[in-house]
Amino acid sequence: MWDTFALFSSSYLATLAMGLVCAYLGVFCVLRRIVFTGVALAQLAAGGVAISFFVADLGLGSVSRFAATYGATWGSLGASLAGLLGLQARRREGRITEDALVGLAYSAAGALAILLVWRSSRGLTELQNILAGTVLLPQQSELVSLAIGLVAVAVVHALYRRELLLVSFDPEFARAAGLKEDRYQLLFLATLAVAVALALKAGGLMLVFAFLVVPPLAGLSLGDRLGESTLYALAIAAAGSLLGFLCSIRFDWPVGPSVALCLVLFLGVCLLGRLNEQFLGAARSATLALGALALLAGPLALLASPAPADSVIPLAEAAADEYPRTSPPFDDEDSDNGEDHNEEWEELLERLANGNSAERIEVIPELVANSSEALEPLLAVVLDPDFAVRDAVDAALAVVVESTAADGEFARLLSAADVAPLERLHAGVGATRLGDPRGPLAIVDVLAAAQDELPLLVQDDAVALLRQLRGGDGFGFDALEAPAANAEALVAWRSWLENPASAGFASDQSQAGDSLAPAPVPGAVIESTAATPEELTQRLLSGPDRLGAARELFDAGAAGGEILELVLADGPADAARAAASALPITARVQRLGDGALYTPIRVSVARDLLDERRPDDVWDPVPALNELLSVAKPTETDLERVLALLPMPAARDTWQAVAARNPITASVLIAEWLRSPQPDERVSAAAGIAALLQPRATFETAWNASAPGPDRDRLLLVLAAESGPILSPALLMRYGEAGPEAKAALLRRVGRELDADGWPLIGLGQSAADPEIRRAAREALTEFSMARAARAEWELMQERAREAELVEILRDQLSQADPTNAANAAHALADLGVRAAIPDLVAALRRDDPNLRAALRAALRQLGQSDHVGDEGY
Amino acid sequence: MSEQSAALIELEGARLGYGDKAIVDDVDLQVQRGDFLAVVGPNGAGKTTLLRTILGILQPLEGRCARRARLGYSPQRSVLDPVYPFTALEVVAMGLMGSSFAPPREPLRDIRRALESIRGNGADGGEERVREEEALRACGMLEHRDRPFRDLSGGQKQRVLVARALVAEPDVLVLDEPTNDLDLRGEHEVMEVVRSLHEAGRTVIMVSHMLHVVARYADRLAFVHRGKLEAGPARDMLTPERLAPLYEGMPVAVGVFDGHVGVAPAEAPSRGLESSQEA
């Protein structure tokens, strides 16, 4: 949590600064009873931001570019100051009351803001962020303008506090004392407008409003005097920022509402404080202490936060320690001896990780050739859902551990404390199946140390293996129970395993060791226990080993299936979850999709399902994903589960949901992924950016998190290919820093999207030294000209279609009864030069009407058919 | 002429009002050192406009208004929002602002003061603190210096406001309706403070519509009525003939009650509101 806090230290500082300034000004606003003026100024500022987005989208060349770069800050400042002048001007007039005018400004600015950006996808999301209050890694330039503005406001108030207080409290007296009262009023409102506009840009409307109102109220209720009250208000603003920020990180809440809520809680405590003198004293001291702590936390976090380019590394490491991947961990160690890896080896690993069962079985024997490095990839798939794959793994492992290097590594994985729990469990399972006595001990140790961190079904698999050693008795270990409840069982296991006299393992081991036979599948053992359905039901309902009982019931056929159904429908949550785990995957997916499972177990079923999933599985993970995303408080592991499915097109929507719910977590994970040595994960991260709700902010985060050079190029490459138009301006801005390949990709994107903003880049690209870039520029140019030609042709066709329609109507008119109409049609056809109508004209000459005949002859003459004109005398 | 030029405040042919709207026209008024001038008139007649012109908040539309003195102003209590948590002392301290006694500008002074007040040692405020406490003492409010202004009674608030007007040592005290909405005791305490200040040599200009108060303390009266101002010695002005037009012709009786001049409606035209007021 501290690491995350350090990563967001600049965000925190921004929140803290705006909180202090807004709270200070809020004391004035509350006392002057103009709180809503502050809010209206903020809404006006939001309107200003919207105007800047609108102008940026107009395509007005340099004006739009300026608006896109600096518009938001200047727009919000400008609109807010303009609004204040409007409000100030009113003071002289007096037909409209001030609060009505404030309401007018609020509603007009609000409506205008939304309508202006309605057609702009970028603007709308950013505006929504502003209104909803998401403080997420503000950009450096924003922080600077925020700092400058807020310091200016603070200086003005430090110098003129007494004057500003006097003109607030008693303006008439101030004027009688010779102060320029109206100038001070303007000065106060100007500081308010500046602070609100900048704070709005950084923290959003909700946060500004909360800071303007809540800390001052709390301060005024705590303090008896104005000075004291102001100090308490500042302390509460700081403390609320810190607490809200920590909550936001801990519970993955958006920052704005989280801080606002903490402020309100503080206010509640302060109001309670007024009830009792003693409590009041305590509340005062606590407020000041918390405020001081919050003030200190900012600089401390800033010191603790590493330089931007590296900031994600410790985080990524911490995350890797805490959350073992459920997918095969080909982790950083690959890169240590990367030189030895030829592409073939990489490809083998890739196929092992992402291929289907047949491919995996095919790949496994090939890995053995490189025994010193095959151990980890093999262990990663030791619990493969496909038993055929397990057999292949066992056979391969037996060969691999012959090599001394691999054996040493094996020993390390089995016993070292710093091995991730999942890896150690895999090693333990592998060793057990090889008949190595260290294996079961490793499994028991890992379960005792870190049961919580292991996926449920992995635990179950491992324990099933242990049970086989004792002919099916598991000492009552139940993966569904909390670690504390299993402690006893694990102690029993351990003492049984460590006692060489105890019947089971030693002999088992010698047998297994001799034959190197793969372990029998669990089903075989279950048959030997031959429990009655009643016993099984009892075990399913109250343990031990609910999962085993469920599986046995399922294997027992129709009667067992019925019991499972009953438990699923009405049983206690743990039993129902166990019952669900015995069902085939497709049945579980379908039940999730149908909403057939009752609420408490839905999420756990979804989690189990996703943990079991392999990349080549064809079942639809979306119901399970949706289930996880509907959780009010998804865990980090849940997010990992969701993110693991990212490359699936169907899962794209879920990204939106992740981002909406946990913007901070999502961007932290993306940043972590970008540092991953695995190309796949980097690509996923980039695709994640493309799908996120705040693609631009996340892109900036990712950009800052990745090192200049190949990493950034890769980011650009993927995003140029994958992302939607929202990211275009941000991507094109990086053109200058891109490598040749990325430049070419950006140019192709310009061509593909017919993005007019990228037009100047095509010119640049055409004169580039790199032939690839020049080719890309030419291609983009071609796209543009083809588009232009296509458009021209289309317009021509439209024109022709219209003419053809007209000609049809005119020709039809020629045969109409009314000779005047027919004559007009003849003239028109001649004027249009429709030679195709000549036969119709000639045919019409048979009609009697002389006027018509004259018209027809004139028309024919005009069309150059004078030979028909000769029949004049006829 | 020489006496006239010594007048502390002098209005000559002045037309008073806002924008292009005159409220009182053709005003000639001199306030001499040591005067106790009461400005009387029905609501809306322009008393406050006159006061604001005298204070320099408003410029006369025509004519001139000369001030040859420092003025100390006490506004109507009702315009002050009770939501501000100022102490009596802090309110008085405001009176120094804009005067030559104002303390030097010190950016973090208030934070220092706030910290001091939380720690409970109200360290000395220097020269200006002495001045503030002196003003409070002169108004009999010294023992209330640290109480919140908003918690004081009406009469006490008014005395704090008089102290604020007094703190920058003005030559002339300008009081706007100091006895409005006060009970008899509050009114008495405020007016005794004002009288003691007057007797100590301060010139007083006071706006009021309470004739009985004015009759008791003021030595000069100015009637503002129907856009005109009439001024004169109190005893000349307090006659039924001059008072009656002020109240739309309602007959007014002037008599002596307990050694003081008293003013009351001469007779109740009906047994309505007026009679119940008498009771």
Description:
The complex is a heterodimer of chains A (874) and B (279). Chain A is mostly helical and 874 residues long. Chain A has 47 helices and no strands. In chain A, helix 2 packs antiparallel against helix 11, helix 32 (599-612) packs across helix 33 (622-629) and helix 43 (771-814) packs antiparallel against helix 44 (819-832). Chain A starts with a helix and ends in a 5-residue tail after the last helix. With 279 residues, chain B is α/β, with parallel strands linked by helices. In chain B, helix 3 runs parallel beside helix 6 (154-166) and helix 6 (154-166) packs parallel to helix 7. The longest helix of chain B has 16 residues, at 184-199. Mean pLDDT of chain B is 83; it is low at 270-279. The chains are: A mainly alpha (874), B alpha/beta (279).
Give start-end ranges of low-pLDDT stretches of chain B: 270-279
Mean pLDDT over the residues of chain B: 83
**What would you call the quaternary organization?**
heterodimer
Terminal Cα span of chain A:
106 Å
Helix content of chain A: over 70%
Distance between the termini of chain B: 49 Å
How much beta of chain A, percentage-wise? under 5%
Range of helix content of chain B: 25-40%
The helix/strand class of chain B is: alpha/beta
Instruction: Give Rg of chain B in angstroms.
Output: 20 Å
Summarize the main sheet of chain A. Answer: none
Q: Topology of this protein?
A:
The complex is a heterodimer of chains A (874) and B (279).
Chain A: H1 2-7, H2 9-32, H3 35-58, H4 62-93, H5 98-116, H6 121-132, H7 140-169, H8 171-176, H9 181-203, H10 205-222, H11 226-251, H12 255-273, H13 277-304, H14 312-322, H15 333-336, H16 343-354, H17 357-368, H18 371-380, H19 387-400, H20 404-415, H21 421-433, H22 438-450, H23 456-469, H24 483-498, H25 503-515, H26 522-529, H27 533-542, H28 546-555, H29 558-570, H30 573-582, H31 585-594, H32 599-612, H33 622-629, H34 636-644, H35 652-661, H36 663-674, H37 679-691, H38 695-705, H39 710-722, H40 728-733, H41 740-753, H42 759-766, H43 771-814, H44 819-832, H45 838-844, H46 850-862, H47 866-869
Helix pairs in contact in A: 2-3, 2-7, 2-9, 2-10, 2-11, 2-13, 3-4, 3-5, 3-6, 3-9, 3-10, 4-5, 4-9, 7-9, 9-10, 10-11, 10-12, 11-12, 11-13, 12-13, 14-36, 16-17, 17-19, 18-19, 18-20, 20-21, 21-22, 21-23, 22-24, 27-28, 28-29, 28-30, 29-30, 30-32, 31-32, 31-33, 32-33, 33-35, 35-36, 36-37, ...
Chain B: H1 2-5, E1 9-18, E2 21-31, E3 36-40, H2 47-55, E4 62-67, E5 71-74, H3 88-94, H4 109-119, H5 127-138, H6 154-166, E6 172-176, H7 184-199, E7 203-208, H8 211-217, E8 220-225, E9 228-233, H9 234-237, H10 240-243, E10 252-257, E11 260-265, H11 273-278
Parallel strand pairs in B: 3-7, 3-8, 5-6, 6-7
Antiparallel strand pairs in B: 1-2, 1-4, 8-9, 10-11
